Amino acid sequence: PKEKFWLPDIVINEFMEENKAPSVPYVYLYNDGAVHDAMPVRVVSSCNLNIYTFPFDVQNCSLTFNSYI
């Protein structure tokens, strides 16, 4: 079961809403010992837009990942 594995508490600093993506109750185990957690994440964040050159503008929005540890 997934709850038997330690998973890092990765958070996205730019979250505007709580992640409401459905939880996946399992992890993938591989024969080389690797463990893969395919947790879906729904991100609602803010981004400063520069529309001065619209409709030829290009927008870049950064996401910052951190841990509480």
TrEMBL record:
Gene3D superfamilies assigned: Neurotransmitter-gated ion-channel ligand-binding domain
Pfam family, one: Neur_chan_LBD
Domain Neurotransmitter-gated ion-channel ligand-binding: 1-68
GO cellular component entries: membrane
PROSITE patterns, A to Z: NEUROTR_ION_CHANNEL
Bilayer topology term: Multi-pass membrane protein
UniProt cross-references to InterPro entries, sorted A to Z: Neur_chan_lig-bd, Neur_chan_lig-bd_sf, Neur_channel, Neurotransmitter_ion_chnl_CS
Top-level division of the source organism's lineage: Eukaryota
UniProt keyword Zinc present: no
Cell compartment(s), UniProt: Membrane
Main location: membrane
Membrane among keywords: yes
Keywords associated with the record: Membrane
GO molecular function: extracellular ligand-gated monoatomic ion channel activity; transmembrane signaling receptor activity
Protein name (database record): Neurotransmitter-gated ion-channel ligand-binding domain-containing protein
